[in-house]
Amino acid sequence: MQEIRFHGRGGQGTVVAAILLAKAFFSAGYYVQSFPVFGVERRGAPVEAYLRLGLKKIQIHCNVYTPNHVVVQDARLLDTVDITRGLKPGGWILVNSVDPPENLAVFSGFRLAHVNATGIAIDHQLGTHTHPIINTAMIGAVARMLRMPPLDTVCDAVRQDIDVKPEQNIQATKDGFQSVQLVGHVK
Predict the structure, then answer these.
(1) Model pTM?
(2) d(CA 165, CA 177)
């Protein structure tokens, strides 16, 4: 079983990203669980969402405390949230950022990847320049980073669930998959 914790802000599509990936993994033959945790429910407030996946039925039903991987949809959260909390050694950290985060020592012992999901969302007119909706670009990047689920199942999940600008969202998913930078292990 693998567990993924998503960090984002209200309005970025963090919860939807976890749900879309869960549907893609389910289509690829995995058992899945996906659920959010909210604090103050307002646009811009930090939110977390979780995804569990495995090839056997998942018997546990609790929050994710020791994720295998972490997805950070807003790089500014790196300054305010301990995104490595409980992260298993060697786990991936995917950050929505043009460049790798500056203080790489924080990520020592983990694998790092980054993708300019904000730029992709703006290029495809998803959301606005001030509030881009980056979730589909991020899930494309996750699929490449983890080498699963197959990109076509991720695009199918987007196609089935996203009613607003579906073709732009599918293309953003593909662009996230193609443009993610896999930095690898940070020492």
Answers:
(1) 0.94
(2) 19
Residue with token string 């669980």? 33
For 184, the token pair is: 């690898």
Question: Among residues 162, 101, 112, 105, which one has the least CA distance to residue 141?
Answer: 112
- Please name the amino acid found at residue 29: G
Q: 88: which 2 tokens?
A: 């298993």
Which residue ranges make up each domain of the chain? Answer: 2-185
The pLDDT of residue 40 is above 60: no
- Going across the sheet that includes 2-9, the strands are 31-38, 46-54, 2-9, 69-72, 92-96, 111-115, 181-185
Backbone angles phi, psi at 146, to 5 degrees: -90, -10
H or E stretch including 18?
helix 14-27
Please give the average per-residue pLDDT across 155-169, as a whole number.
97
Q: What pairs with residue 182 in β-bridges?
A: 113
Look up tokens 């662009």; give the residue.
175
Pick the CATH number of 2-185 from 3.40.920.10, 3.90.1150.10, 3.50.50.60, 3.40.50.10860: 3.40.920.10
Per-residue pLDDT band for 39 (boundaries 50, 70, 90) equals low
